[in-house]
Amino acid sequence: MAQLRRDYQQFVKQDAEVLVIGPEDRQAFEQYWIEKKLPFIGLPDPRYRVLKLYGQEVSLFKLGRMPAQAIIDRQGIVRYAHYGNSMADIPSNQELLALLKEINDK
Predict the structure, then answer these.
(1) Which stretches of 1-106 are assigned E, i.e. beta strand?
(2) Can you give the residue range of the structural domain that contains 86?
(3) Residue 28: which CATH number?
(4) Segment 3-62, tens digit of pLDDT
């Protein structure tokens, strides 16, 4: 989440909203958001409801939820999805920002 915080204003300039969904319960999630002063939206998903809707993988051998990133347009259409194979398998902000620019320029 540090990389998202670092470039958050660039996402805002691309008319994007950043939403992070995590496995913690509401209280733990809220506490983390307050402590870290995160500028974007956090959504607790302890029952994996959102995870299941978007096909995000859970692997107990790899410490739980695998990372997933999606760009969803205003009509609710998934324009980009990346499902990581490890906790380090995350697209760079620059890659995501370039995709947003491409989508916005159409």
Answers:
(1) 19-22, 41-44, 58-59, 64-65, 68-72, 78-83
(2) 2-105
(3) 3.40.30.10
(4) 899 999 999 999 899 998 888 899 998 999 999 999 999 899 888 888 878 777 666 565
Of the candidates 97, 98, 99, 106, the residue with the CA atom closest to the CA atom of residue 12 = 97
Separation of alpha carbons 7 and 66, rounded Å: 22
Contact status, residue 33 vs residue 42, Cβ threshold 8 Å: yes
How many domains would you assign to the chain?
Answer: 1
Output 24-32 pairs: Cβ under 8 A, ≥24 positions apart. none
Q: Residues 87, 64, 66, CA angle at the centre, nearest 5°?
A: 40
Q: Provide the pairing of β-strand 19-22 with 41-44.
A: parallel
71 in the Ramachandran plot: left (φ > 0), alpha (ψ -120 to 50) or beta? beta
